[in-house]
Amino acid sequence: MSNNPQLATVEASGDQASAPPRRGLHAPKHGWIHEANKRVMGQTPKGTPSATPRPSNVASQQRPASAELDREVETIFRRTARYGGDDPRDPKDHAYEPAREQDSPDSDSATRVPPSPTNPKSKHEPRQHDDNDSDQGRPRGNPDESKDPNQVEWEGEDDPENPQNWSQKRKWMLTLLASFLTVNVTFASSAPSSATQQLAQEFQIGTVTATLITSLFLAGYCLGPILWSTTSELVGRKVVMIVAMFMYMLFILGQALAKNPETLFVTRFISGVCAAAPLTVAGGVIADMWDPVGRGFAMSLFSCAVFIGPVLGPIIGGFVTQSYLGWRWVFWVMMIFAALCWVMILMFMPETFAPVLLMRKAKRLRKLDPEGNKDLYAPHEKSDWSVGGIAHRTLLRPFQILMKEPILVLVTIYLSVVYGILYGLFEAVPVIFEMTRGFNLGESGLIFIAVGLGTTIGGIINVFVQLRYRQLTPFWHGMPPPEERLWGSMIAGPILVLGAFWLGWTGNYVAVPWYVPALALVPIGMSFTLVFISLLSYIVDCYTVYAASALAANTIIRSAVGAAFPLFTRQMFTGLGINWASTLLGLVALVLTPFPYIFYIYGSKIRGWSKFAPAFDLKVRKELEEEGKLPKDSLNTTSPFDRNGLKQAKKDAAEKKDPEKRQSSS
């Protein structure tokens, strides 16, 4: 074995020169460009006998050997094939792995070229040479050669094309963009609610009929998720966002120019169907980029956006409606906002859906070398996209899960009631502040600032709640129990009940200052955000591969309930009185409050019986019990608040930071 690095380099060059020649994956096999390239790089031209290798002088500084230049050219070819002509010059990318029969056991490790990070095989493992390989080399669609080598996958864990490996800055910019789009469509859901009375007078219709302008938009949310989630899984996120937002913008134009209520209501419903795209796809974009730890913080921002939009709607819509512009300008403002968002999608949003990106990569590789890579494929290309397969995933499976999963049923009921209360406020607040206290449209809309303040506070609280989940993630090997997501809803349940009673019994009496019932909307807003972030994250963690179907079922039921609430809220508050109507909502919330606590205690056992919940954490729990990090049979022998191993997780984290603690404890 030689310790001289220069000698090692020469020995490596000699080994490579004696090995069978191996071309790059997409290197040209013939032609004048090939011959000119060989002359420039110092290779033997076609028809010229091979030159005898000259003995190298180790002590002298000489020009790099031809084999080394060949390796550099090989690397460039592989990079060009991988990135479709874009060479990011990643210093960690060692795309070339030299062909050799077998490493000699007494050879120096310094003479070996490090294996490519795209190939997980050990560098000590001999590489078998296939005589059937073409001159173009073996297609390396899948870097893990233990699987189908023709299946296109990511080039290792650090592949820059994988959205999970994008920079934090880029991820947060796209998260902000997705949240901004969500603000846009949720703003449109509530902005026309302030023009209900003007619409009734303009078209000579009843007040309840005019309320359909909000309900029909929310009814579109029932159909939209089925349509857009399926389409985004077929063609990608960006295409769906571009098409849906363009249609959404055009149908707002129909609302602004409507001459009769039928046109207004039809275009309003279609706009709701299109507006469901950002609500459905934006969550998918966040899941495409973020791991479970970072996803919690990103979802906090996204959930705040879901509630900021409905809060801004009555504020802006109220002032525009009572101004000289009139109610039609509410729709013109919505259209301008939608056009701005559509341009931002065109300019700044990339594709993030991994199966579609891999499919494009497979097509790119086949185009670069139609002969050598003709067998490469992406898994997405072999998915079942028949009408029957799509119908099963989008129509049958969501309701199949809903009927068989008690967790999903109870979570859907809770979220539906909270969602209904949110949109019921658009009819309840005018009763409390306009009809009872004499506020005008603009002043009544300003009351919703309290809801926005509450949702923001709820998002901040959720960030601190996620720190607990973050501490548990390494201890549970990246799969903590989904029940740890429930802390937000456990905090929010009593707060929602308190806010409902506070609003009703202070808003009913004119003698109570206006700001007292207005402040009651702050805890109500807090509960909205905390419940949504907590329970939606819980659904995703519980059902993982079936999360899309579970969320689709939840969205359909939730949107239907949200659409129904504005139709009877005003009548309920005027008929029962503000105090008793709010008390009724508070009692419903009180009945639902124990659900998160029940799931936190018994959720793991319930998921163990489920046919759709994989329950990976239960397998990790057994491993931790065998390692002694959790007590034996921890689900039955420990209290519900100690079975997550948080104390041991903190102890392990402290030992990693301070190895002396580990030595002293051992």
From TrEMBL:
Compartment annotation: Membrane
PROSITE patterns assigned to the protein according to its UniProt record, in alphabetical order: MFS
GO cellular component: plasma membrane
Domain Major facilitator superfamily (MFS) profile residue range list: 174-606
Membrane topology: Multi-pass membrane protein
Alphabetic keyword roster: Membrane, Transmembrane, Transmembrane helix
Name of the protein described by the UniProt record: Putative mfs-multidrug-resistance transporter
